[in-house]
């Protein structure tokens, strides 16, 4: 593979950075404080998540020659991202199913501080206005909470593919806050789960 030719030499460690609009500041401006850096493991492989929906994404590229000389930083702001129609359709179908006759997702529970360890299969089941997290192997319910507005936050992690967190806040039916880190089968499945959970609570 032939290295990219730069003015006066070959490409070195070009710096690529991605930013997403700060919550509540969508479409407000282009200044740095309107954006926050996306913590990507590989900045050359940005994959949008549900956290980026309806937000503008900014990319900054600083060309660097092999001898360390930097060129001017180039910046481009993408239009607000939209949720793909196929994902919206999947979310709508899952929400309707769970609201009418119940449904579930099978995810792998992990320790965020030890992601190298195997995930434990868990069933996240929703029925009759309540959510249960059950151990797939034993079918034992390990957590149960009544679904109500503001009881939970579902979040996709941009720095770890397929990872999502379910954070349950203190309510009358759940006096003890809990957070579960879960791995979905793939990025699309992860995003569907996050959007469904947000719709239900």
Describe this structure in words.
The protein is α+β, with helices and mostly antiparallel strands and 201 residues long. The chain contains 2 helices and 13 strands. The strands form 3 sheets. It has a 7-stranded antiparallel sheet with strand order 10-9-8-7-13-12-11. Strands 4-3-5-6 form a 4-stranded antiparallel sheet, with no helix packed on it. Strands 1-2 form a two-stranded antiparallel ribbon. It starts with a strand and ends with a helix. The mean pLDDT is 87.
Strand sequence of the main sheet, in spatial order? 10-9-8-7-13-12-11
State the end-to-end CA separation.
Answer: 51 Å
Bin the strand percentage. 25-35%
Mean pLDDT level: 87
Low-confidence stretches: none
Number of strands: 13
Structural class: alpha+beta
Major sheet summary line: 7 strands, antiparallel
> How many distinct helices?
2
Shape: elongated
Helix content class: 10-25%
């Amino acid at each position: 593979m032939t290295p990219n030719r730069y003015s006066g030499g070959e490409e070195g460690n070009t710096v690529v950075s991605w930013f997403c609009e700060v919550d509540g500041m969508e479409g407000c401006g282009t200044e740095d404080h309107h954006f926050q850096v996306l913590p990507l493991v590989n900045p050359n492989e940005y994959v949008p998540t549900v956290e980026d929906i309806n937000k503008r994404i900014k990319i900054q590229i600083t060309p660097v020659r092999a001898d360390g000389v930097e060129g001017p930083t180039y910046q481009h702001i993408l239009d607000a991202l939209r949720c793909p129609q196929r994902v919206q359709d999947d979310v709508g179908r899952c929400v309707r199913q769970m609201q009418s006759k119940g449904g579930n997702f099978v995810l792998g529970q992990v320790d965020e501080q030890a992601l190298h360890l195997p995930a434990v299969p868990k069933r996240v089941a929703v029925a009759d206005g309540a959510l249960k997290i059950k151990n797939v192997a034993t079918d034992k319910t390990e957590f149960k909470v009544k679904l109500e507005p503001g009881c939970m936050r579902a979040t996709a992690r941009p720095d770890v593919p397929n990872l999502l967190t379910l954070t349950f806040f203190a309510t009358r039916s759940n006096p003890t806050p809990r957070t579960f880190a879960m791995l979905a089968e793939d990025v699309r499945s992860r995003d569907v789960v996050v959007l469904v959970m947000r719709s239900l609570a």
